Amino acid sequence: MRSRRGTYLLGGLFLLGTNSCALLIPWLMKLAVEGLQFPLKAPHSPAYYALLIIAAALLQGTIRIFSRTTLLHAARRIEFQLREELYAKLLALDLPYFSRERTGDILSRFTNDLTNVRMLMGFGVLNVINTVIIYVAALFLMVRLSPSLTAFAIIPFPLMILIVKRLSASMFRRSKRAQEELARLSSHVEENVSAATVVRAYCREDAQIEEFREVNGRYLESNMGMARLRGWMIPVMASAGAFGTLIVLFLGGSRVIAGTLTLGDFVAFNGYLAMLIWPTIVMGWILNLMQRGAASMSRLNHVLDASGTVTDPAEPAPVERLRGEIEFRNLAFSYGEEPFLADISLAIRPGMKVGIAGPVGSGKSSLVRLIPRLYPVADGQIFLDGIDVNRIPLVTLRNAIGFVPQESFLFSRSIGDNIGYGKEGAGAGEIATAARLASLENDVHRFPDGYDTLVGERGVTLSGGQKQRAAIARALLKDPAILILDDPLSAVDARTEEEILGSLAGYYGDRTVLIVSHRLSALRECDLILVLEAGRVVEQGSHDDLLAMDGRYAATWREQQLRAEIETF
Ligand SMILES: Nc1ncnc2c1ncn2[C@@H]1O[C@H](COP(=O)(O)OP(=O)(O)OP(=O)(O)O)[C@@H](O)[C@H]1O
């Protein structure tokens, strides 16, 4: 905003110019009236003044156009810049931030709050400068014409300012509430679009409509409250303004009749008084605009000032390429107050294949998400190639890891672009190889435009398994030292999962691979399998070791084998 100081200064100068012309008009009218009243004493004819008035009016209009475009364009540019900063900030924030905030709320900052800030920086600033110039200059000229009449004319003004102050404090509270309601409304709509399947599958349409009506009603109520206040404000202010005019007409008229005030001065005085009334009437609206803008700016600052807990190291370790050695030292982690992962100590050599098993909610995803620091890790608990992860620059760390999350996400782009997302500037050949390795190639050939087929709203809808394989291909393309597959094939059957993982085995080479899976058959070939329960490693070893241990792993293995046999039968 500071960089726009020059533009605002220019806008202010234009406003000074246009208002000077506007203020000149009543004075010229005074001279014209005096010319009509005393033609012999007048230096110029009334026609001369009429021409000057027309010229001043034209000049006033022209400069006003420049003042508005200068200031309103500056506000647009500030909005543009803020939007960019906000977007960059969102990309810099970490996952704990997004699990706290509602998506709709974040989106409403990009739309509603940015608009309010633009209004503040455009119309708000324009009107404030305008009001100050008009007030100072018109009052000065009124005092010059008649100090005592000025004192009477401004009697209603303190009352008007008091009303504005009172109403605008209440307006501020309501406008903040309205903005929060709007954010809630956006969240509601957003969730219902994302959860379209769930809503229909559970026949919750009516209940959702009912819930929406409630949120919408609260939004309406807060806006109605504001409209009521605004509705009061203008008539009350206009009446108070009219009262001032009435006083001037009565007292000024009497003085003209008594000959203590010239008709020209009286005309000019009324002209200046009229100029004061409109800025005073709209003062409430401007104050509201400013308060809404300020409330929105504070909501934007809430995002802009948010600092992620996962940040780049202040003193990064000199590391160029990671080999894939991972060590957990007494790793502990919690999402809130309660510790969740605890006492995890393990050394994974580069090139090892590690399987992670355990019941639902045992902490498998939480554990693997800590390696690329998707969630904050305490110092001295995770080491890659002997270096504390917190000392490795985030780009180096994350570039070395191919992470396939449990829920695969595809962008609304072509399938090729979705896979190519794993590596900037990836060629068609590399994309096809990655798709082949992830057993997706045959599916892509069946799509109407092959790799150019659009995914999502305007293109094909991929099956859960296809999405998962596209996400695997994306990670493979990265050629990472560490590959983390967080239950990546839950959407395909056990045999297909085994086949796909089998074909992936050829790609693993000397990469370190961590696979999370509920199906133990998918982990059988791993060098080491960890069994988690309630955030702790309760068993570990190779498949054979764990069977020999005859513990939880062995029991689950027998159960899954039995189920598979029954299903085959
Ligand atoms: N972002 C989060 N914020 C707070 N708690 C979370 C978050 N993510 C997971 N949890 C909690 O942590 C626990 C472990 O979740 P996690 O996803 O690691 O389990 P999991 O073993 O991978 O489960 P699943 O087999 O179902 O994928 C769960 O109780 C879950 O509610």
TrEMBL record:
Residue ranges of every copy of the ABC transporter domain listed in the record: 326-559
Gene3D superfamilies recorded for this chain? ABC transporter type 1, transmembrane domain (1.20.1560.10), P-loop containing nucleotide triphosphate hydrolases (3.40.50.300)
TM ranges are 7-28, 48-67, 119-143, 149-167, 232-252, 272-290
Membrane topology of the entry: Multi-pass membrane protein
Q: What is its main location?
A: membrane
Q: Which residues form a coiled coil?
A: none
Positions of the ABC transmembrane type-1 domain: 9-292
Localization, UniProt = Cell membrane
Q: Which GO terms describe its molecular function?
A: ATP binding
Spell out the PROSITE patterns in the cross-references. ABC_TM1F, ABC_TRANSPORTER_1, ABC_TRANSPORTER_2
InterPro entries attached here? AAA+_ATPase, ABC1_TM_dom, ABC1_TM_sf, ABC_transporter-like_ATP-bd, ABC_transporter-like_CS, P-loop_NTPase, Type_1_exporter
Alphabetized UniProt keyword annotations: ATP-binding, Membrane, Nucleotide-binding, Transmembrane, Transmembrane helix
* Name of this protein: ABC transporter ATP-binding protein/permease
